Structures are given as C-alpha cells and as structure tokens.
Model the fold of this input.
Amino acid sequence: MQLADVVTTSDEVGATRSRKAKTVALGALLSRLTDAEPDEIATVVSYLAGSLRQRRTGLGWRSLQTLPDPASSASLSVLETHEAFERMAALSGPGSQQARADATTELFARATAEEQRWLRGLVTGEVRQGALDSLVQEGLAAAGGVPLAAVRRAAMMAGSSVAVATAALTGGEPALAEFVLEVGRPIQPMLASSAPTVAEAMVKIDGEVAIDTKLDGIRFQAHKRGDDVVLATRSLDDITARLPEVVEIVRALPATDAVLDGEVLAIGPDGRPRPFQETASRTAQSTGTLITPFFFDLLHLDGRDLVDSPGAERHAALESVASPAHLVRRLVTSDPTEAESFARQAVESGHEGVVVKDLTASYAAGRRGAAWIKVKPVHTLDLVVLAVEWGSGRRTGKLSNIHLGARSEDGFVMLGKTFKGMTDETLAWQTERFLELETSRTDHVVHVRPEQVVEIAIDGVQRSTRYPGGVALRFARVIRYRDDKTPAETDMIESIRQML
Done:
C-alpha cells in the first residue's frame, strides 16, 4: 500500500466529526489489506491510530524544521516508510546524529508536500485525524466483517489493536478467538468512568455493589507461572526488575499460575500512603522506598480464566490466594449511606476515594463503562498539556501557565489554563520537560506535542464561548503530572460536558 493512501484516508477522517463516517473511511482502506503481509497491516493500523511503530527514533520537532524539497509525485510505500524509521531507531553511538539526519533527508525527499506534512505530524504526535484506537478497532471490525466485541476482546488479550489486526482482516472471528489470556503476557486493563458522588454511582448499578478503596498508587498487573513472575504497568511496560520486593510477594502466593490486577503503593510508618511522587519515583528504579502491592482483581488462577466470570466470583477467588494485608479494602452493600461512610473513611485514611463496582460484571478493557465508577471527593480530571506560556515576575524565564486539553474524537480540545498548584520544583521540571516537547512558538506561548498527562483538580465546569469545547474549568489547579498514564487514557470532552 502506498503512503499516499494512508495520508488521504487520514485527512478524510480528520475532515468529518461523524463517528460513522470515520469508521466507513477507515474500514474502506483497511479492507484493501486482506491479502497484505502482516508487517504491512500492522504498520497501516499503527499509522491510522497516529503512532509510529518505533517507540523512539531520535527525531523531534527541531530535527524536522528544515526539510528537502518535496517530491512531485507519490512513490513511497508504507513498508518503505516503516523500514526507514526502523533504520533510524537502530542508530546509536558516534556519528549517529549525522546518519539520522541523512536518513531523514533521504526519506522526506521522496515524500510529496502532503506526505511531508503528515509524516511530520506522525513523528511529533500531531496527526489530528480523530482516529483513536477505539475507532481503528471499529474500522477493523467493518473491514474484516467481524463483531466489534471480538476485536475489542482480542486486543485486550493481545495488548494492542496492532497485534490483532491481521487476524481481524484475514482470519475472521475464529482467528480473533485464538487470542486468549496467556500467563506472562500483560493484557489491557479495565478502566473506570467517573461520578461526583457514591450515591450517583450506585444508581447506575442494580443491586448490591462493591465499594473498593481507590489507592493513589501505580496500577499494575502481576503474572505468576511457577516461580517466574512478570510485573507490568497499565501501559504494559515491564517493571519486574524494579520491584524485587513485590516479585517476592507474588512468588509466595499459594498458586501455581495466577494473573492479578492491583496497585503498588509506598506506605509510611504510620500506615498511611506516601505522596504519589514517592511511589512513582520508586517504580522507576530498583532501590529506595519500600513498595507494597495491593490487589483488587484476579483474572486467572491455576488453569482457569476468570475474565468472563462475575466480579463477585473473581474477588472470592482472589481472597483464596492473597493475604488480607495485600487486598484493597472493600465493602459490599446496597445502602448509599453505608457506602458514603465507607468512602469518607477511605479519604480520611489518605486515599483518593473509592471505586463502585458491579458485582455481576465481567472484566473488559476498552471504553470506560458503568461497571466500574470512580468517585473522588475533589473532582479531578486527567488532561493533556497542549501549550505553555512563559511566566512573569518571579516566574520569569520559566514555563508557567499550561493550556489544558480534553480528549475528543478529533484529537484534543482546549478547555482552560492554569498556573496554580505549581511549586518552584514543578516550574523547573516543566520548563525542561515542555521545551523537549516543543513543536512551535507564537509570541510568549510554546506549543507542545500532546504527550504529557496532568491531573487537575477543579471546583466544577461552566459553559464557555471562549474555548472550542463549549466548556471551561472552574478554579483549575495542578495536582501532579502523571507519567504513568498516556494521552489515550485522559478524560473525554463529552464526559466533562455532562458535568454542566
């Protein structure tokens, strides 16, 4: 497939706000890949989702400011483009910088003006086509003539849509069904939606619910096969070597094979959780503050997959293998007053809030639904930083006021700014961080790639004609930057509008 075909489809998807039209366009292109090689299918799917397949290429906004004259006609194939980035990613050592620059010139000289524009956006994370991973899954289902639920489940088990794309397009539903939970291979995690109060969350679920304490830690999966243990973050990064104390706890569980979901957390001598930054810092290295695992779900136990089992059954199995000291505190009730009291106690103990869970629901990754609903006393949002303004006064020379964006089907929508809640250390860190992510400047504003997630506390939202999303944040302040979350996990503009 030619790169120009992907660019044309990407532009078509970006030009419409209709989810159905986006899916039709994606499906039409993907249906042309039924006879393609797996490597080509994987590359097209990754590109349509707005990402290179390489985690790092050494390229950035600055290295793409001066490009060769564009080609007069399209000739680049998708695989040629992918292979060029593969070669760049492999470069290291003396002379690699010049070799990468030469390779960049060679690649972009073969690209048309439209392809150059699009490739620059692909490298810098600025492809604004609205083709999020969920939309690409819908396109794969349409192109392969398979149920969307089958694509979503396979992607959950395999860890990505790219990994199941070939099966969806060439093998149909039987091929997708072959992607099952494998102990040792991390799966995509189940996510929670939000509600302002416990009572409102409980209204969305019939009957008794489980109220789990929401810990302010790092989400992780633990896979145990005999004495072999694998630990992975919610983004599926392997952190096994960094948490030897957690490995020992998992290895000692009374089970041969197990897959558990939970959080790791730094606990102080008083039994209260330490600040999130301490937990995040510790999970980035193998020594330092002691980390404690807390489990809230069990997905596999000794040859039996539990992802399709009701939540109550999964938790009963979890209690049979995990020590009470390593279980997230839980209340099962149908009484809103009792649930609110439990939530207050959780917050008083230093935790974020609670998660209200449907005891009958299976474990499913994908869109945030009503099976799990998180409730925090101070409403917080996970947003993406789109730009930063240079500060004044004592903040002169530092990047200060951040522009905040919520996720939409078309990329990210700005809905406010804030400079509140930033310490001197935060200002110094974010100045360095956002200059690394810089894409362009206008006057006193530095525009950045939408990669850095920030957790924001707000007093509410209000209608606004100032911002394109039609909504603005009230009294926004920074809680912390979240390196454990990706832009794809941030809050959607639609859910924020519902707070009006």
In short: The longest strand covers residues 291-301. The mean pLDDT is 92. The CA atoms of residues 217 and 276 lie 6 Å apart.
